[in-house]
TrEMBL record:
SCP domain sequence ranges: 242-348
Organism taxonomic ancestry: Bacteria, Bacillati, Bacillota, Bacilli, Bacillales
Highest taxon of source: Bacteria
UniProt xrefs under CDD domains: CAP_bacterial
SUPFAM superfamilies, sorted: PR-1-like (SSF55797)
CAP-associated domain span: 68-208
Official protein name in the record: Putative membrane protein YlbC
Organism: Oceanobacillus sojae
């Protein structure tokens, strides 16, 4: 009897040890849902998350894939000095190449290493696919999945994509630390642009819902002056990308207008500071009243607004995929553009001016 009691005691102790070890080893997962993105012309909102895929072994050719991990010196030796260097909201600098009316590229340089590339336009070197390829063609080569994993030394992450994400911006893992986002024009079901990023760059941008075990990297904080530089860069990027999108559809270029940009900036800042999202301010002023207050003469005007997109390229692809915003972006009525960005609130004001 005593022997049976001792055996039972040993078994209970072993069970308790197993439970404690199991609790220690299985730390709880956490989920980040900070990616709600607003994009409206009629007070609608769109939750922006994405599409994802694990890539089988395949031969990826083309310069865009090869830039991740290279240095800024290698970049400038190959492509020349950038036309502009913009500060980003993620501690890297964008080396911007915008001297072609048919192609545009941004290379994110952190320290001296390229961690992100965004490209839009004709003849992008992204074999085995081509610029303007159909969704079906690309999905046949790159399996799009709703969950994509990434891990570093201490943490593990899963990017979780919605149905909308899979349609508009699928995510594909091409190596342990390299990912492609395919941005699609859902109206034509063709490729609009691509972004290639390291896992850490994606974690900072957070364009998709993230489930993780461990710790997320902290997002950087900036002074008002630093934010001013970041916002100015995003404003110029929106102009550049708008004109590439218009060129692809045989539309005339938009010229920058400083006065209209002030109108757009004031509205973005007002939305941020007063915590609302609308074309009409809390005082009841719309675009017409804002243009009149700045004494801007026009024969036609339109406005696009967006909020909480991680950067300018993402906001542009969002506008392209919203019917009312697309209409303004691709209208031949307009010949001037003013852009105002404040934090992650974006405003485009389009203008047709009297002769």
């Amino acid at each position: 009897m005593k022997m049976i009691r001792n055996i039972m005691i040993i078994m209970i102790i072993a069970l308790l040890i197993f439970i404690v070890i199991n609790q220690i080893s299985s730390s709880p997962k956490e989920i980040v849902r900070e990616v709600t993105t607003h994009l409206t012309e009629d007070e609608d909102s769109i939750e922006s998350k994405g599409t994802a895929a694990e890539l089988p072994q395949m031969n990826l050719e083309g310069d865009l894939y090869q830039w991740i991990g290279k240095t800024s010196t290698e970049l400038t030796d190959e492509l020349g000095e950038p036309d502009r260097i913009d500060v980003s909201a993620y501690n890297y600098e964008w080396y911007v190449y915008n001297n072609s009316e048919s192609q545009y590229g941004q290379f994110g340089v952190l320290g001296d290493e390229i961690v992100s590339v965004y490209a839009i336009g004709e003849d992008l070197e992204i074999s085995p696919i081509e610029s303007g390829a159909s969704y079906v063609e690309i999905a046949d080569k790159f399996p799009f999945l709703s969950e994509v994993d990434y891990s570093d030394d201490n943490s593990s992450f899963t990017f979780r994509l919605t149905t909308e994400d899979l349609q508009m911006r699928p995510l594909v893992k091409i190596s342990d630390n390299t990912f492609i986002q395919f941005y699609f024009d859902t109206f034509t079901e063709t490729l609009s642009s691509v972004r290639i990023s390291t896992g850490d760059a994606l974690l900072l941008q957070r364009p998709y819902e993230i489930e993780y075990r461990g710790e997320l990297p902290e997002q950087p904080e900036f002074s008002e002056e630093e934010w001013g530089e970041i916002q100015t860069g995003m404003e110029q990027q929106i102009l550049d990308i708008s004109n590439i999108m218009r060129y692809q559809r045989d539309l005339p270029r938009l010229e920058w207008d400083d006065q209209v940009s002030l109108v757009a900036y004031d509205h973005s800042r007002d939305m941020y500071e007063n915590d609302y999202f609308s074309h009409v301010s809390l005082e009841g002023d719309g675009l017409k009243e804002r243009l009149e207050a700045r004494q801007v003469a026009y024969v036609a005007a339109g406005e696009n607004i967006a909020a909480q997109y991680p950067d300018a390229p993402a906001a542009m692809e969002g506008w392209l995929n919203s019917e009312s915003h697309r209409e303004a972006l691709l209208s031949d009525e307009y010949s001037y553009l003013g852009v105002g960005v404040y934090r992650f609130y974006y405003t485009q004001n389009f203008l047709g001016k009297p002769f």
